[in-house]
Each structure stands twice: as C-alpha cells, then as structure tokens.
Amino acid sequence: MAQIILSLLVISLTIFGFLGKVESRSRARMYLQAQCQPTIYFDLCVRTLLPYTTKKELPSPRRLAQITLTTCLVKARFTKVYVDMIAKQYNKTKNHREYQALEDCLNQISYGVNQITQSVKELQQMDTDVEEKFVWHESNIKSWISAALTDTTTCMDGLLGDTLGNKVKSMIKARFLNVKQLASNSLGMFNRFTARHRASRAIRNP
C-alpha cells in the first residue's frame, strides 16, 4: 500500500512539474506573440525568441531586438561561408559565368554581414552612451539593417537567374531568404524597442 501511495506521489509530482513547464512555456509564447506583432514574419519571430524566454525572465524590448539582430548576424555569416564554398567549387571547374554570379552574391552577403555587425555594435553602444545620442544611434541602425535587406534582395532577385543549376540556386536562395526574413524582423523589433523607449522617457519627463 505504501509503495502504491509513493508511486502515485511521484506520478503526481511529475504531472505537476510538466504542467508547470507547459504553463511557463505558454506564458512565454503569449508574451512573444504580443512583442512580435510589428514583424512581417510573425511565426519566425516567435520561434527565434522563444528559446531565450523563461518563466523567470521575459526579455525587455531592447533585449529582444538584440537577440533577433544577433541571430540574423549568425545566419548571415553562415550564408557567406556557404556561398564562398560553392563559389570556390565552381571556380575549380572553370565555370567562369557561374563563378561570377556567385561572386556577385558573395559580395552582397559580405556587405550584409558588415552592416548587421555594425548594427549589433551600435545597439550595444546605445546602452552606454548618453541619451542625447539615442536618435543618432537609432538612425544608423535602421539605415544599416535596411541596407542589409536590400543586399539580400538584390542577390535573390537579380543574381540568381538561369546561370546556376536549379539545386544550387534553390539552396542559396533559401539561405538568403532566411537572412532577409530575420533582418526584416530585426528591424520590426528594433522599431518596437525605440517606440517603447520614447514612450517611457515621455512618462518620466512629461
């Protein structure tokens, strides 16, 4: 009898622990769904941020903007490495036309990586700089993210025509599309952060 009671107790604790995790996950998801409203790629936004949200910590709008931007940078760097690898393969086979198309795309993603890197650094600088420079930092970050979006779109729309094989073209396009979507979400989350910051400042200094 005692063993049965002990077993039931263990099962009950396991169930309650599971329900607690589900409740925590559900609360985190609801929070992110509200935060991700300004983004175009809403589901991607929630999936990107969910691993960084727990019951004990619901990241601030600034932190969420930082996470989306850093994630975009990581994906952009992986895309650059991938395109560089494919370009070298085409260069070895002396497919000069295909190699040139890949080189053009490689230049675009390289520009994008630099712009997103600058944005990440600028967002970090916003924490330590004086309030008077907030607008200047904001303008820089928006310009760089927008430029990165343009770079990814240029490669997808203009440099991946019939020159490359369908399989290679699809693989590269999928990676650029992911970077583009993350950059778009980063801009949306950053805009939300700056709007909330201004609203908070207006309350403190009416």
From TrEMBL:
The keyword Signal applies. Keywords: Signal. InterPro entries: Invertase/methylesterase_inhib, Pectinesterase_inhib_dom, PME_Inhibitor. Residues 1-24 form the signal peptide. Gene3D superfamilies: Invertase/pectin methylesterase inhibitor family protein. Pfam families: PMEI. GO terms for molecular function: enzyme inhibitor activity. SUPFAM superfamilies: Plant invertase/pectin methylesterase inhibitor (SSF101148). Residues 27-189 form the Pectinesterase inhibitor domain. It comes from the Eukaryota. This is Pectinesterase inhibitor domain-containing protein.
